[in-house]
Design a protein that fits this description.
Layout lengths: L6 H5 L5 H14 L28 H4 L10 H11 L5 H11 L5 E2 L2 E2 H6 L1
Antiparallel strand pairs: 1-2
Length: about 120
Amino acid sequence: MKEHGTRARYSQGCRCQPCTEANTAYSRARQVPRDAYNLPTIPFIETTWMDRAACKGRSDLFFPAPGSGDRNHRYHEAAATICNGCPVQDDCRHYAIAIGARHGVWAGVPARQLQAS
């Protein structure tokens, strides 16, 4: 058996103070600091408004396949037509700005134009 004061001895079932301290030190050394991954803090954003959106189920117009039309005015015009009169247009605009949307049409406006404003 290994000597006291080691993690190996703790792993074998010894719970004396030196072995417990060695195990605690080992565990602390292995913990990754919460900010080590530099992940952004994302606030909770209410999204129940999406159920009332006029565009619900029309992702083909609002998020066209890459290369097929984010720059194509046909998609933007069709999406803007659906957005006109939508009861949640303001919520949609605020949401797109809050999440930093970079693709698609939000509140009748291409995402890149929303972020530029």
